[in-house]
What does this fold into?
Amino acid sequence: MEEEKKESLNFIEQMIEKDLESGKHTSVVTRFPPEPNGYLHIGHAKSICLNFGLAQNYGGICNLRFDDTNPEKEDTEYVDSIKNDIKWLGFDWDDREYYASDYFDQLYEMAIKLIKKGFAYVDDLPADEFNKLKGTPTEPGTPSPYRDRSIEENLDLFGRMKEGDFKEGERVLRAKIDLSSPNMHMRDPILYRIKHMDHHRTGSDWCIYPTYDFAHGQSDSIENITHSLCTLEFEVHRPLYNWLIKELEIYPSEQTEFARLNLSYTVVSKRKLRELVEGNYVNGWDDPRMPTISGIKRRGFTPESIREFVRKTGVAKRDGLNDVALLEHAVREDLNAKTNRVFGIMDPLKLIITNWPEDKVEMLPAVNNPGDESAGSREMAFTRELYVDQADFMEDPPSPKKWYRLGPDREVRLKFGYIIKCTGFKKADDGTIEEIYAEYDPNTKSGHDTSGKKVKGTLGWVSAQHNINAEIRLYDRLFLSENMNDIDDDFKNHLNPDSLEINTKAVLEESLKNAKVGDQVQFERIGYFRVDEDSTPDKLVFNRTITLRDNWAKG
Ligand code: ATP
Ligand code: MG
It folds into this structure.
């Protein structure tokens, strides 16, 4: 048993268990470190589930830390959305809401310490000139003429950088490491740069800001993070991460990298998603077509399905591409269990039951969820005039073995109602079918059928008098190319022009008139839908979360 459990652990869990067993750590402290420069996306969900999930499983804690060291791109709007998204996913950081900017004083002191140890210097070389001297991975770099400044001069100049004596780009603080290292990040990386810019939290207190490399590892260390998990692109930063910890003699957090989540037909990069928002290719960060957490929430994906999807994708050491169908499958599974079935006719065709009295309304019980008795039932008004879907009728259908729905003389059951037989239809000059006519058999009432009749087709329907209209937004994939990391041209060339279709002619069963924003239903045979925030008291707006089955299947 024990062996089996070990094998199913991913490599990070194995590492953690080893660290706990050996006594290297007595508890697990992780963190989720977003930069508040955009909305979180499904890729971040992976990092969130991993960091918070590990803390949960091993009885540890996970901090939320905003990595806010780039004042020009960051904003409190993003801070707020990030917090909402993490909570929505089902995780909690209690009172451990931290900001790298809260550590600016400590980071400054650490920089002073490095200068005093002779491990950092103020460089006056403009960036492009430094880059010319920097060499290539196979050729060592040439030292900047300012590299051997005295400690006193460095302390003085760094202090004056902080006081605002210099212009942006005029000077930087660099670590003095190794100009011949094959790892370019070790060739005197920048630790501090001048930015005469207000910060969303520290206001005008600072005009020098630490770089990612100088802020991230030290923030981990300040928070006693035991396992600092990040995506593979930071692997090359790890030697610098470790060097800083060693030279600063601070708590030795350890960085471990895992593969990013990449999804087919999807872009997971804040920068690109921002481009879509700012260029009005979509209607905001929470457009239901967006892979942002706020977008998929509005679309109707559930936190449970996202957590399940992330679990299934596992934790890998090499980048790959996950099939978006796996995510959609998780959503369907979850919604199938949770949602009530209702009738919605997307493309209405009037059906007149000619032997049903003009004014008679019969209320028929309809089961809400066949898989969940506790969901109960509702009543549907059955009247002489109904709507079925245009797609449910064919003027000249193939044999009854191939076509179970309506056509002249064909019989079907109207779900929860009666068996009807089509007796005729009315056609407009342009060839469209305007109305169809049928007769019902009173002995075939659902649940009380004494007729012995057997029909193969069962149709959804809605009363022509007792129904509501709604706006139905049908979404398709936002991008047409499977691997959006593997394209050479502008990613926006791959946008699906038909990713949003708006249906305003649909009619829905009357029971939906009290639906509230956030309610989720399954329109029988059509798909899962969620009531959108754009709904008004006069008009409900539904988002199609996902079709019932994968109708995207290739070939
Ligand atoms: P983007 O590339 O979209 O801008 P980012 O990495 O710059 O993302 P951050 O806010 O810095 O965004 O990310 C916070 C955390 O989420 C980091 O630890 C990062 O490694 C992780 N993360 C970002 N994208 C993914 C992804 N696609 N899969 C897994 N983890 C991710
Ligand atoms: Mg980042």
Remarks:
- Residues 126 and 169 are 7 Å apart (CA to CA).
- The radius of gyration is 31 Å.
- Residues 344-460 form a domain with the Ribosomal Protein L25; Chain P fold (CATH 2.40.240.10).
